[in-house]
Predict the 3D structure of the following.
Amino acid sequence: MRDGCRALWHHPSPASVRSGCKGAAETAPQVEVFNLRSTSQGLRAGGRRRLLRLLGAISASILAILLVAAPASQATSPSPTPSPSNQTFQNNISGFLRDDARAPLADVTITATSGDFTGTAKSSANGSWSIGVPEQGTYTVELDESTLPEGITLAEGQENPRDVTFSQTSNLSVIFAFGKGIVVQQQDFGQNLLNRLVAGLSFGLLLALASVGLSLIFGTTGLTNFAHGEMVTLGAVLVFAFNAMGLPFWLAIILSLLGGGLFGYVQDRGLWRPLRRRGTGLVPMMIVSIGLALAARYVIQFFFGGATQQLPFAQSPEIQLGPVSISPNNLWSLGISAVVIALIGIVLLKTRLGKATRAVADNPALAAASGIDVDGVIRIVWITGGMLASLGGILWAYYRPGVTFDMGSAILLLIFAGVTLGGLGTVFGALIGSIIVGIFVELTTVFGLAADLKYVGALFIMIVVLLFRPQGILGRRERVG
Amino acid sequence: MDFGFILASAAGEIFSPTTAAYALAALGLAVHFGYSGLLNFGQAGFMAVGAYGFAISTLTFGAPFFVGLLIAVIASAIFALLLGIPTLRLRADYLAIVTIAAAEIVRYVVTTNQLTSVTGSANGLAAFEGGFYSMNPFPEGSYFGMNNRDFFIRVVAWALVILCCTLVWLLMRSPWGRVLKGIREDENAVRSLGKNVYAYKMQALIIGGVLGALAGMVFTLPRGSVQPANYGTELTFFLYTCLLLGGMATVLGPVIGAMIFWVVLSLTQGILYGLIESGAVTWLNTVQAGQLRYILVGVALMLLMIFRPQGVFGNKKELAFA
């Protein structure tokens, strides 16, 4: 119900400025929102038409933006090619071999035996393998570990060979999970800690790019944007698409950043601004953003496909920099995000625009009353947020490494964790929170948590912090319920 | 294109066990969001707790069916307690973020390779449904074109849906339910009447969570397997779509919403695949057709929330938000 109060803030009109946000006035805006369509039909009819038209426009522009991705996906659409030893049987035992960073493992030999039948297959370039078998039944599937690439071993607890049984389907998929190979000369603990710390800082800063944008948007409009993950994905997908079209790498990156900014602008113009005008509450807006996230994610998958693709220069050997070994990509990522975030900080603290943004975040109605163009500020915040998310997405594609349609939603919760840890709506809190989350995610593996559980630690810490300091590290107490 | 077949398979979705599972889970969300105003984005986590609680107690500890059921229900109640303690005093969006994070934690934990012997890791668990089907009272034969197993699970699932709907209906017209609706409308007013708002919210969270756990079991039993990939955040969002389709603060809304959701999904799939096979549509392949349906779900969720937030049956005055 307190949302009603906030909704009022984002609806700057002389009346709302006068009434403030206390006591009996708190219920008034709700009534207005409730009966919007019945009481002020005439006033709102135009608004509703505009909303409809703009909704159409936004979905069209999402499609248009993503259309450019279509040739890319066609160019490299993965076709699981059956291995040569494959006979034409009705039934298949198949699977994908991917290491823990989801990169495909090629040329690994897998054998399936049952009685006197033996079938073998080699995994193809995209990691897929398939063995045709004469009948549904129980087979012993063995992965030849000597054919695995260097440094990669089966994860602990993975049975090999193992018995698998068909269950009424003609295809049986067998999943082999891989863990990081145990390096022969064990790195000493301090060295490992330092490496992970730097990697975590790099990861945290790229998370911060996305979460600063999310936090700015939350601060100025009150919206918890679940579609932010798709804005992250879009950045990486656009670079891949433009690059696949033959554009030079630097141009692809610039176009991708512009595309991200455009997506932010179109979102605000076509969807969020009309909804704010209409006085839609924050919870409905949150659910609308979930719908947008679902739609955008599958639109991206529609054009991009389900496969993992690599951006140019994704493979880079680690270099030794003083006591730390780090890949040049991570180093670049660290530098770029640090510079960009410093720039954002300077703009927020030192310029008129920054001051206006902070004023809108503090109290939109008051900002409007003192002559600040609230809608203009929010528009700029959305464009900036879109560009930051795009940049974060590109860096994330190098950090993982790989581009997939769901790469953004995979870190959405980490972004939320960073924002919440720092304090919802505080930009510098989001920065600190994200760095903590990034370092925490990387360090948990040093302290013995399994690699596939490393996100759990960060999410768990977020819940624990909420228990003891719900307003976050830099948040103000009164913001929280 | 065989319209008869497409229509028949769409109609088959109305009473499929999956629809029943979605209806139950969405009913739980109605208790959370529609009646109490609790923004639970972790219903998939409750379903996973129910499904895994049952499967693990059956497979690892050899518990009989009803003991497994009880363990699943208790596990989900404990999960609700753990979630509620830090968040129920906070604003709605905090609860949303914490519940979605907790649901993902559950999914990561059951996916990890460290616990393969218990959870089966990414492959999941299978062959735990024997205890359920051994209670099948129907002899073998054809029931409305189904075999006795399919018929039995449908009867049980929908009986459960009817039972839970009745319970929720009775609860919500009781004094307890009126307090809950009061909390949704104005928490401070209810608090000033001397009610323990925190306790009421916690009770609602537990009841909705238990409904979610039952839904998780109904979801897995006909499949005979439980896999972590099924319990991602998207499942929760689909449930919200069902809930919003039917109407949030209604008892029948979630059920009808789930039916509409699955019938529309099945219809669009049938028609799209038919068009592709007959060559009328060449710019799509069948994989993309599947994605197109989920694009539609997302757009439908947006449009519903914007233009008809009360759903098909809902009352605009009973929205959990303004």
The two ends of chain A are 11 Å apart (CA to CA). DSSP finds 17 helices and eleven strands in chain A. The first helix of chain A runs from residue 2 to 9. The first strand of chain A starts at residue 91 and ends at 96.
